[in-house]
Amino acid sequence: MKTPPCVMILEGDILIRHPVAEYLRDCGYRVIQAASTDEARAILAQHRRFAVQIVLADLNAPGTENAFALCAWIRAHRKGVAVITAGSVNSATEKAGEICKGGPALTKPYDHQTVRDQIRRALAARARRAPANKS
Amino acid sequence: MVVEDDVLVRTVIAEALRDAGLRVIEASNANEALGYLASGEPVDLIFSDIQLTGSMGGVDLVRIVREKYAHVITVLTSGGGAALAEGHPHFIEKPYELPDAVARIIGLLGKK
Fold first, then answer.
1. Domain map of chain B by residue range?
2. Helices and strands of chain A, counted as H and E runs
3. Residues of A in contact with B32 (CB under 8 A)
4. pTM strictly above 0.90
5. Quick one: how many helices (H) and strands (E) in chain B?
6. What is the third-level CATH fold of B2-110?
7. What is the mean pLDDT of each run of 10 residues along chain A (135 residues)?
8. Residue of B18, B26, B41, B46 to mutate, testing the A interface (most A Cβ within 10 Å of its Cβ)
9. Contact (CB<8Å) B7/A15
10. A18 contacts chain B (CB < 8 A)
């Protein structure tokens, strides 16, 4: 049986995090929920147990580390992990693309289908890059 | 609902419960758990660690839940706080075997 792609949702609001996690599970993804940047770091450190391929990160997520900084770190040090950022207009979502090197950025509130579509695109892009990464 | 501030523990028990066919909500602290309950979404059982980060621990969380949401079954867990759970009807000691914890929770839900 094929292992489903693993998505980590970094979101500090359970009323946002839980519904999108349920929706993505219904779409066939394995979903890990991180309520803070500290929790996200703990999951990323366990790469063999939780092979995260996509991170959907709220830029206002709580934690000792700024979510912007965490996203930038993932892009620099976890080449196989795609990052989709999300934030309100007030939190300078526009800056996310600049800081995170042009990755997809969602403006909250987002609808779940848009998240799914962005994840599909990110996984497809990852798959296209994979052969090149192996050589 | 699993209330656990260790994301690695929470993820593993939540996935085991889902694999057993349950719908699982993951809360990282007591405030998240109470916020979710206040939203009106249905919850049948809360499985909470006693030692939680934040302003409230699992014992106080369970006390409030039992006062406000009497239909919700509450189960406490802890590695060193068993004495704090004294008098509480449902307690699972850490470290627990996943199949045992899952079976206990499913058994409690089956009695509803």
1. 2-110
2. 5, 5
3. 14, 35
4. yes
5. 4, 5
6. Rossmann fold (3.40.50)
7. 92 98 98 98 94 95 95 91 84 59 76 94 85 51
8. B26
9. no
10. yes
